[in-house]
TrEMBL record:
It comes from the Bacteria. Pfam families: Gly_kinase (PF02595). Transmembrane segments: none annotated. Belongs to the glycerate kinase type-1 family. This is Glycerate kinase. GO terms for molecular function: glycerate kinase activity. It comes from Agromyces rhizosphaerae. InterPro entries: Glyc_kinase_flavodox-like_fold (IPR018193), Glycerate_kinase (IPR004381), Glycerate_kinase_RE-like (IPR018197), Glycerate_kinase_sf (IPR036129). Signal peptide: none annotated. GO terms for biological process: organic acid phosphorylation. The keyword Glycosyltransferase does not apply. NCBIfam families: glycerate kinase.
Length: 380
């Protein structure tokens, strides 16, 4: 009897997109079980690849080109995604990684990278008249608290002399005033921040301490960056009071405020709400309905570890599959944590003989993993 198989991997960061991973798994599976029906549902968690995953699920999705200011000041050509909901709602999806992401920098600039381009892309979506925004904030290059994005949306950030502060975390150290009176309003349906990160803005678990080193910060720079973010939070609170805002400034301890170098905090200040990126993408692509009609589900990511349980794609797909009573399998470049509740699991590093070989030819080993799982998983 043939099986209906849903393939819902995340990207294998730096080596394969989610769509390419799903295609490779499908090719391998078809070699072993050519009669099975294969349904690709590439996933994302709010990081790089979110637009690709949403575009793959909607043939009417439209990429809207825009040129923005990159994280080091150079122009970047990118796009945001325009979708139309079932009720006619005009939805804009903006991905930070493509406008202000870490892959756009070489070398890294931990103190000076900024999110201005991300804000410019959001502004372009607003100019196009979207009703609601989805803001995917993974893959950030900066630790500027999202101030760059806020300035691109109309906020003014000045030093004690009234001059605009420099972009990036370094400029937060000179910050004296944030004027929010010119900040553009949210679209009618609001803005939703997609992220898989629950870190606060400040402290040992905050944006600078946890993610600063990934963005090039050394041991001396991390506490300085954290102090600059604390200054930003204090000045922003005064800005809320001066603007007579309808509510208080966001709490730096809010889970997710530290996402994307504090961009989560800046977007909360704009009035956006934060949700699990993987859950939001799953809803947008109709993952639950696809899985409910499936016999087997396969998910995966580059590295399955302790963080994978905290709202990343494999945990979201597994929960959805188990809720429907459908067995789910895991494929990962490296499996560094107990793969509990998965009906089967395959490590590309184990298949290839080493992580290096797996990363050198990821699609070939994903295809082999698909073939292996097709033989391992039961036929109904």
């Amino acid at each position: 009897m043939s099986r209906r198989v849903v393939l819902a991997p995340d990207s294998f960061k730096g080596t394969a997109t989610a769509a390419d991973a799903a295609s490779a798994l499908a090719a391998g599976w078809a070699r072993t079980a050519p009669g099975d029906e294969l349904v690709a549902r590439p996933m994302a968690d709010g990081g790089e690849g979110t637009i690709d995953a949403l575009a793959a699920a909607d043939p009417d999705a439209e990429r809207m080109p825009v040129r923005v200011t990159g994280p080091d000041g150079r122009p970047v050509d990118t796009s945001w995604l325009r979708l139309t909901g079932a009720d006619g709602e005009r939805l804009g999806v903006v991905e930070l990684a493509s406008a202000s992401g870490i892959t756009l920098l070489d070398p890294l600039q931990p103190l000076d990278a900024h999110t201005i381009g991300f804000g410019e892309a959001i502004a372009a979506a607003l100019d196009a008249g979207v009703d609601r925004l989805l803001l995917a904030i993974g893959g950030s290059s900066s630790t500027d608290g999202g101030l760059g994005a806020l300035t691109a949306l109309g906020a003014r950030a000045t030093d004690a002399s009234g001059r605009p502060v420099r972009p990036g975390n370094r400029g937060l150290g000179d910050l004296h005033r944030v004027d929010l009176t010119g900040l553009r309003p949210l679209p009618p349906g609001g803005a939703v921040v997609l992220s898989d990160v629950t870190n606060p803005l400040l402290g040992a678990d905050g944006a600078a301490a946890v993610f600063g080193p990934q963005k090039g910060a050394d041991e001396a720079q991390v506490p300085l960056m954290d102090a600059h973010l604390a200054r930003f939070a204090a000045v922003l609170r005064r800005g809320f009071e001066a603007a007579d805002a309808p509510g208080p400034a966001p709490d730096p301890a809010t889970p997710g405020a530290g996402a994307a170098g504090g961009t989560g905090y800046g977007l909360l200040a704009w009035g956006a709400t934060a949700v699990s990126g993987a859950a939001a993408v799953a809803e947008a692509i109709g993952l639950a309905a696809a899985i409910d009609r499936a016999d087997v589900v396969v998910t995966g990511e580059g590295k399955f570890d302790g963080q994978s349980e905290a709202g990343k794609v494999p945990s979201e797909v597994r929960a959805t599959a188990l809720a429907s009573g459908v067995p789910v399998a895991l494929v990962a470049g490296v499996i560094a944590a107990e793969a509990g509740d998965f009906a089967a699991s395959v490590s590309l590093a184990d298949l290839a003989g080493s992580p290096g070989e797996a990363m050198a030819r990821p699609l070939a080993w994903l295809e082999e993993a698909g073939a292996r799982l097709a033989a391992l998983l039961p036929t109904p």
